[in-house]
Amino acid sequence: MPGFPGWLAALGPGVVWMALAQGSGELIWWPYMVAKYGLTFLWLLAPACLLQYPLNLEIGRYTLLTGESIFRGFIRLHRGFAVFLWLLMTVSFLWFGAFASAGGTAMAALSHWPSGWSPRAQSLFWGYVSIAVFLIAILSSGVVYTLIERFMKLVAVVTVFGLLSACLNSDVLNALPEFAQGLLGPVAAIPRPWDDHDASKLLTAITFAGLGGFWILFYSYWLRDKGAGMAGLVGRITGLGGAEEAVLSDGYLPQDDAVGAGHWQTWRQFLRADIMIGILGNLFTTLMTCLLAYALLFPKGLLPQEYELAVVQSQFFAASWGEAGRLLFLVVAAAFLTDTWLATADAVSRIQADIVLTLFPKARRFAARQWYYLFLALLTIITGFTMQLDAPGPLILTSAVIGFAGTIVFPVVLYLLNYRLLPVHLPHWARPQRQPWLLGLSFVVYLLLAALYVNASFKLF
Predict the structure, then answer these.
(1) Range of the domain at 205
(2) Does the global pTM surpass 0.70?
(3) Of 4, 295, 334, 348, whose CA is between 20 and 30 Å from 254?
(4) The domain spanning residue 437 has which CATH number?
């Protein structure tokens, strides 16, 4: 097993995880629920975030020990089931262009340009502009993942700094003690009647408190291109500005020797730390957005609706810095949401190329980079079209609900993969040492959430 390169060199996928999680729902659904229902559901946030730890751990474990993507593992486990997941995933990501549209809303409110256009048309215009900018950046990059990681780190830093600054407002600080109590459980009766239409939004907020659905599989591909563990022996996707590398679908198993055992212990520590950076960092920023929503939006009854999501939430920063704060938030929100398109387009293109090369041997006459750019082009065209169909809120929600089906089955599939299929091929020191009770807990909770959602949607009971 390759040696550990050092913490500063290795850390990164967790920060990408954090930045993508922020833009893929935390800026949208949790503030909405808090602004509408106060502290009623806030106590669910921390458990929902931590619930994803065992899933990320098992996804990362497979990639670090084999150098393969998690979808390659699914195909090894059961080809037919993997194809089913592939089709479901493909459908779920047809709508992710809505994040660029939501970010475009922020830029439209910031610039009010093109003049004479409707707010909706301006949002779409800036959404398409952001997509074009990101495509140029990907094409001109050396190693694509390096571009993604650096940009997402920048977004994470700017977001945390901006939210912290906004939370220093006196009105926000005065609300902090009561807000903190809400983390332990409901502190009062629900402030307004429950709206059944919010069932899917609450489901999305809980399940996507982090990276839910098929988004969670991205972590495997980031670790792979980062060169973590055995993935250091496989190639990376490069931009047109970098030399093409041979990207292998099949990985390698670690040799049974003392050196490899020592390296694995360090890689295990890295994996846990990297995951917790993503989860706790995301939890921290989500708590700040919820605190701001509780202090500033809830008392006024302001609710983020449809494509005005980012505009309504500019009230966060306006409370601290006036008009300058409002403008700054819109810039941050634009990066916050459009970076979601960048990271998602990249990851989904990687996954599609990986699956095609694995399932269809004849496809290997073309390099992985060529397939990657083909799918990137297709995704850009498709999402550019779906952005026209509806406002960002419903589109993001549709993607989340479809992806929830994957969330339910992932704990079971990861158990079969890492605790039944893989261990017999590994040295004893690389095999799981404990029973995956946390993985089982995740499965039970997600199954219960699915049952509650179906009941709320169809009034079965």
Answers:
(1) 7-65+93-458
(2) yes
(3) 348
(4) 1.20.1740
